Each structure stands twice: as structure tokens, then as C-alpha cells.
Amino acid sequence: MNSLQSKRVLIVGGSSGIGAAAAQAFAALGAQVTIASRNAQKLSEAAAKIGHGVQTAVLDTADAAAVDAFFAAQQPYDHVVISAAQTPSGPVRQLPLDDAYQAMDSKFWGAYRVARAARIADGGSLTFVSGFLAVRPSGASVLQGAINAALEALARGLALELSPVRVNTVSPGLIATPLWSKLSDEARAGMFESAANRLPAKRVGQPEDVANAIVYLASTPYATGSTVLVDGGGAIA
Question: Is 187 helix (H, G, I), strand (E, B) or coil?
């Protein structure tokens, strides 16, 4: 039996990358999917590509009042996924404090605002997207690791507070998403090849790999308080 058929699913950050792949996966299983982000044009383009009657909603997770108003006007969702974030990176002693605050506000507080306001049906789920730097820190991206670890801790606590709503986290490694589009084709290909050679999986992740884990957590009624690594073995390599 398909447990996602006709379920109401909201993907915050669903206009590209992992969020768009998750939207595609849920929609293919018959869910009624809404994708949300700040950019109406990107949402429209993503919805057209995904098909399946996917709906769109313009939503800025940095705006607490807008987040509250959005969910107050909605019927409860069965599953909510949060993959929206803009996180400037760099060594702690070089990253400007304003950029550090922006990173924390976008990825952690953005997810917190949604979790605080979202109306989710009993037995439904809330899924965060963190990152393997939470368990395998990088000296060049210390703040990102701290934010990811904070998200995972938030999810475990919310799994208790929001029960019987289930709360989980998916933790990706290096994923080939538009995040890397600022690099030249040559530089990006070289980075991916180098990473693949280091990873036990011998490949770089694709957004669909992470989407599979998101769907698994949403559709498994016994999964809550969990963090699922989808990192090609990056946390142990």
C-alpha cells in the first residue's frame, strides 16, 4: 500500500536541488505537493518541470510573521520538509560576523520558525536537511558543522515535544546541486572527481539520493528522532 497517496506534502526550499528532487519523489508517489521558496519564478519553473499538479507558495523563512501567517491560512500538512538555506562559509576568524549571523538565521532559525508554526497532522512528519559536517567537522567550515549539529539536536528534541508528529533529519554529504554552479565546469568536475576517489561509495551524491532518504523517513511510521546519513561514507572516510 502506498502510504503517501493523496497526502499533503510541503517542501520548503523545493525550487531546486535536494528540495526539488524530494518534491519530484513525493509527487511521483501520488502526494499532493506544494513547493515553497522566496523566488516565484524559480518556483514556477520547478513546478512545470516536476508536473503532477505541484502547487507553489512564496515563503521567506527569515520572516517570522510571514511564516506564521502562511501556516495559519493552511490546512494541516501530512509531511513538511525543510531544505531551504543560504549559508556563507569560511574559517571562523575570517568569516565576517554578519555573514555568520546570516548563515545561522537562514539554516537554523529558518527551520526553527517553520517547525514552530507548521500545522502537521498526527502521525505525520517534519524532516530537516542538515549535513555530514555535523559529525565530520572541517576546519574551513566550522560554522556549517555547528549549524548542522544544532539542527539535528533540534529535531531530536522536537520528536519528543511534537509527538505524535515524527521529526527526523537527513544529513547529506557532497551532493551535485546548483550550489556548485558558481564554479567553472572544469573546477567543478575536478572537485567531484577528487571527492569520489576519496569516498567509499566512489561517487558524488545526487539530489535523488537524498530525496530517497527523505521519502523513507516520511513514509516509515516507526522513524522519529533519527538522523540518516547520505554521504557516500564521508563521515567515516
Answer: helix
Nine-digit cell string for 166: 515524527
* Count of the separate structural domains present in the chain: 1
Name the residue range of residue 172's domain. 8-177+207-228
Q: Is residue 187 part of a domain?
A: no
CB 209 within 8 A of CB 221: no
Rounded distance, CA 182 to CA 99, Å? 18
Question: Helix, strand, coil % (nearest 5) of the chain?
Answer: 45, 20, 35
Edge-to-edge order in the sheet of strand 32-37:
55-58, 32-37, 8-12, 77-82, 120-129, 166-172, 227-230
Cell of 143: 560554522
What pLDDT, in 10s, does the model give residues 19-39?
A: 999 999 999 999 999 999 999
What is the Cα–Cα distance from 21 to 60, expressed in whole angstroms?
Answer: 20
What pTM did the predictor assign? 0.95
CATH code for the domain of 62:
3.40.50.720
Q: Distance between CA atoms of 146 and 136, rounded to whole angstroms?
A: 11
Check residue 76 and report its DSSP letter. Answer: P
Phi and psi at 149, nearest 5°, equal -65, -40
Q: For a pLDDT cut of 90, what percent of the chain falls above it?
A: 88
